[in-house]
Specification:
Radius of gyration: 23 Å
Structural class: mainly alpha
Order of helices and strands: HEEHHHH
Low-confidence stretches: none
Strand order of the largest sheet: 1-2
Largest sheet: 2 strands, antiparallel
Number of helices: 5
Helix content: 55-70%
Length: 192
Amino acid sequence: MSPRTKASGSDRREAGREAGVVERRRPGLGSDSAGVLSGGNFHGAVLAMRLDYLTNALTELAAISERRTDRMLNPTLQEPHLPPFLTERSGVRSGYMIAQYTAAALLNECRSFGRPSMDNTPVSGNQEDHVSMSAQSAYLARKTARNAAAILGVELCCGAQAADFRRQRPRTGRRVGRGLRRCPRGGPKADG
């Protein structure tokens, strides 16, 4: 992943964290001599927009991961020492092809989520004419995070399988190396 793309994702994650901090600091109620007054700070639009931003960042990360998976499996793009779909008998066995289908389906689901913070439906007899849909933004951000984790898991499994086709496992960064060590040599194989 390019440093610029990675930085963009980090910026978006930070924006999501910041939104939660800002919203927790805002007073919801105030008081004066007349009693309790609403501060009007109940609106979740700020949080919803940042959650949508986080959803975009996670979708971008998932898209990059799925494309890297394709480069390991696709016979027209992969390294010459790798067999098609990371299986010895491609054409008879599908290898990791179905895992990539799953990753692609999850990615397309993430792309279809839209931007709930930009939508609103008037409620309560048109008294509340701008509703942030922040709960929907939170739900989709969480679902996107789960999908992205699964897509990254497919890439990790494919990477471990690809590494097994080399005489020696390649030198990797600390985090990738830790993930590869969790995948024992010779597995997880997808030879179905």
